């Protein structure tokens, strides 16, 4: 069985990779270099099997990518709003995938474990409405789009240009969701 990678392993790997690293432009250099700001925001899962740079073939600054557990929009709302004031996105792409660890997340089980780990913070644990588990892949995407639509701070044109997709980790195919 392979030994798990450690942070020290990654730091050493970085030292080697940095020797041939190609510098990336600062935001302030984009215009002078004729590089357009990314106009697509992708919100997807942090699962290492669901890497949009790979399954979408992203190059350079084609898109901004936010990744979190289950790829939910809610935890990213303040980031979406903040970055949109700088970039002025044209589209949002929400991608959830099959065999997501989110199917294993049960709110009550998470609460139980957290309360056992930090019993002095039981009241704080109880304040969480949800931990973001998924029971229906397509519905979870619809729910995320509903979060965007419900926000009075989101630009309506951006909400209207939001599309949802499922990603199949076995086939590599991206499948649009009919909304």
TrEMBL record:
Catalytic activity: hydrogencarbonate + H(+) = CO2 + H2O
MF (Gene Ontology): carbonate dehydratase activity; zinc ion binding
Role, per record: Reversible hydration of carbon dioxide.
SUPFAM superfamilies, per database record: beta-carbonic anhydrase, cab
Family annotation (InterPro entries): Carbonic_anhydrase (IPR001765), Carbonic_anhydrase_sf (IPR036874)
Protein name from the UniProt record: Carbonic anhydrase
Cofactor(s) listed in the protein's UniProt record: Zn(2+)
EC number: 4.2.1.1
The entry's keywords: Lyase, Metal-binding, Zinc
Keyword Nucleus: no
Binding site for Zn(2+): 45, 47, 97, 100
Family statement drawn from the similarity comment of this UniProt entry: Belongs to the beta-class carbonic anhydrase family.
Note accompanying the cofactor annotation: Binds 1 zinc ion per subunit.
Cross-referenced PANTHER family: CARBON DISULFIDE HYDROLASE (PTHR43175:SF3), CARBONIC ANHYDRASE (PTHR43175)
EC top class, as a word: lyase
């Amino acid at each position: 069985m392979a030994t798990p990678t450690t942070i020290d392993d990654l730091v050493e790997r970085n030292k080697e990779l940095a020797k041939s690293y190609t510098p990336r432009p600062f935001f302030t250099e984009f215009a002078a270099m004729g590089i357009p700001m990314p106009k697509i925001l992708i919100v997807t899962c942090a699962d290492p099997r669901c890497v949009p740079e790979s399954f979408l073939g992203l190059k350079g600054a084609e898109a901004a990518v936010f990744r979190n557990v289950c790829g939910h929009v809610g935890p990213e709302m303040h980031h979406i709003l903040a970055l949109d004031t700088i970039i002025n996105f044209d589209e949002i792409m929400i991608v959830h995938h099959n065999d997501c660890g989110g199917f294993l997340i049960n709110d009550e089980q998470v609460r139980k474990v957290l309360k056992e780990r930090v019993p002095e913070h039981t009241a704080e644990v109880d304040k969480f409405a949800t931990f973001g588990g998924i029971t229906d892949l397509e519905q979870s995407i619809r729910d995320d789009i509903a979060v965007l639509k419900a926000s009075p701070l989101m630009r309506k044109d951006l909400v209207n240009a939001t599309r949802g997709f499922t990603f199949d980790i076995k086939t590599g195919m991206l499948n649009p969701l009919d909304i």
